[in-house]
Each structure stands twice: as C-alpha cells, then as structure tokens.
Amino acid sequence: MSAASVERPHENRPLIAEANRLMDRNPGYRVEIIGGQLVVTPPPDGPHGDVLMDLALPFAAAGLHGVESRVIPGIGLWLPTGNEDYVIPDLSVVDADYRDHCVENNCYDPACFRLVLEVTSSNWKTDLRDKVRAYAGAKIPVYVIVDRTHQRLHVLTDPAGDDYENHRPHSAGEIVTLPGVIGAEVALDVGHILKTGSPG
Fold first, then answer.
1. Cα separations in angstroms, 105 against 16, 17, 52
2. Is the pLDDT confidence value at 114 over 50?
3. Which H/E stretch holds residue 145?
C-alpha cells in the first residue's frame, strides 16, 4: 500500500517522494522520516504482531476504541521537527475525530494523539532514542515502548522539549497502570507482554 498523499503532490518534498517510492518497492517495510533522515524498518516478525494484538485488547476493553477515541495500528503522525518528518507508530490511541486532522501524506496532527506505542525490532535504538525525542517534541502525552531486546516495558510521560520528564522502565512481575490522560485506566501485565513479544 502506498503512503501517497491525497492532499498535495510531493514535487517539492523530495524525502517524502523517496519514502513513498521505497514503500512501493518494499511491501511490508515501514518507512519514516525522523530529523530529516529516512528510517526503513523491515517487516515485523510474528511475536511483534502477536504482542500488538495483546496490547490492543486492553485498550479496547477500557473503552478507548469507541465514540471519543480510537485505537489504531500503523497510523501516520506528522512531526513538527522538520518540514517532511513523520513517523508511523505501531499502535496509537487517538481522538475519535482524527480524520479531521490529516496534515499530509496520510499523516495526522500530533494534537489528536493521546498515546503512541512501539514494539522494538532490529532497529531498537530508534525507538529508544530518536523516537523519544520525536514524540516528546510533538507533545505526545504518553509513549510506551515494549523493549524486546532488554526485556523492559518503558512508560514515558510529561513531554518537555525533546524529552519526557518521567521515564519509568518496568520488568516482568509488574502490573503497570497507564496515566488516565489517555482517556481511561489501562493496566498492563509486563511479564505477559514481554513473554508474548519475545522473538526467541
């Protein structure tokens, strides 16, 4: 599926045009532009998709996939960090009227995002560093990272500048309740999430 924009052509957006070409030539790959750099992620493995499904269910059960908000995998988020920057989080909780906030290239204004979630893959450093800066700069209230490499669940809240004021890593054996700012209380069993997402 192409990420070609319906809003305006990309003749004056060379990175977006190249990102869209890469996506067309490499089905299943995720192509993003972070800090003016193209980031290409190979297709996820089975446990990556499995843990995403397990994560979507408690959000939906808490009522977040309803009339006020929606739980959506792979929705584009337009970043304020550069004139072509955008990311595609693995899972997002967005305001229900997100369709009214399309910016460009099938990406939406960060103001309608309540939470973004990433499950790490081979390029885990991007999720733990570059995307922390990107999401904080976009003022995303809650960023959750399932760090499959180090077996941790990170919850970042209170964006300030290009970082989050609160960053708590959690281990197996903990139950984490996400902040109510996302619209409901959602409890996550860290051990279950890490086991389900384990690539090995």
1. 8, 10, 24
2. yes
3. strand 142-147
